[in-house]
Amino acid sequence: MSLLKTDQELTRNSYYVATAPRTQRYAALQDDVSADVAVVGGGLAGLSAALELRARGYSVVLLEARELGWGASGRNGGQVIAGLASDISVIEEQLGTAAARRVWDMTVEAVNLVHERRARHAIDCEWQSGYLTLAVNARKAKALRAWQEEMYLRYDFQSRWIESQDMPRWIVSPRFHSGVYDDFNGHLHPLKYTLGLAAAAAQAGVRIHEDSAVTALQAQAAGALTTLRTEARVVGRDGVVQGSVRARYVLLAGNVYQQGIARALEARIMPVGTYIIASEPMDPALAGSLIPSGAAVCDTNFVLDYFRPMQDHRMLYGGRVSYSTATPMNLAESMRRRMLLSFPQLKDVKAEYAWGGFVDISMNRAPDFGRLSERTGDQGHANIYYLQGFSGHGLALTGLAGKLVAEAIAGQAERFDIFSRIQHRAFPGGRWLRTPALVLGMAYYRIKDLL
Question: Are strands 384-388 and 207-209 parallel, antiparallel or unpaired?
Fold first, then answer.
């Protein structure tokens, strides 16, 4: 089953889609145009880059194969967090402590950038401060406490340790042993935020085309223009409508949805399905008692759960993963049972919405940014940039990534190149065997989570 067909199933019952009506649509590309920069992908990374590039005076065309925010940008858990999906030690081991500190500081900048853009563009996306990182047992609590102390001593990240006996003040759940709270991170409505950035980009002069799938990327000699060819189905027109963009620079920001455009990148990421439910509205007193601070929550398991209270007195609960493109059976009920492990007091609360989507994980869970020439050895690809491998930790980082690409295109590539130096390996097993290999590996980590 293709990602597109599965996505159509997974977005059918999305809380975000139901509560963020699309008031603006963008016509499909139906002719041949040119621009300084062509951006492929209408999620947070692509929109961020487009905004930053327009601010620097570049003409920009953004191409989205479906509709803006279709992928992970519009379906995620809504958690805005500093850091990476990988442990910062991955960066330290590869790049050294000084570069790792710069990477960490940039992820802090990424969270601040969300606030800056919310304010500048008047985006109402239901921001709530506060974040809880929780351990499910004493062994994991020891590791979490060590992480908290290290992050304070080495990275100046301040947070509050929560002892077991104090946990009921922070979360009313039998599942969690102890944890860490910080008021820097938080959560928001990701689709409202994405659509707000899109409106800002369009107002700034970015030419946005939805329903415009890129079918081919034709790079010429170094320094020459690159041509992107598109296909679209347009209401009132028979067959497929074709278009093209000729650009000095290209940004590939479609992650798992740009299969076939740049084969050299595909083996470096794996599409992994993750799933979320939103409960029906609860009595406000019950809803407010579950997580009194209103914080977002994530546990420290490798295969983790993440959840947060909503402003309309629902619980949004995410977790479980899938390594095939098939939607899990009985998705809503299976996720509701998962929610009850954390909150048995919700046994009479129904799941009103259930949805999911694919995140693009890398082997080491670190982000994978670079230039296509670095993967192919062809200098004709030197002006083609890519952003991928956010590994489920991209709501804030995608925004910074777009800014770093814009800096690099404008001739200030130092910060982008710190990320491009992070080394990545292809998933083992090739195109057909890498999924079974990953399933076996994840089974090992699931067993470790139980210990």
Answer: unpaired
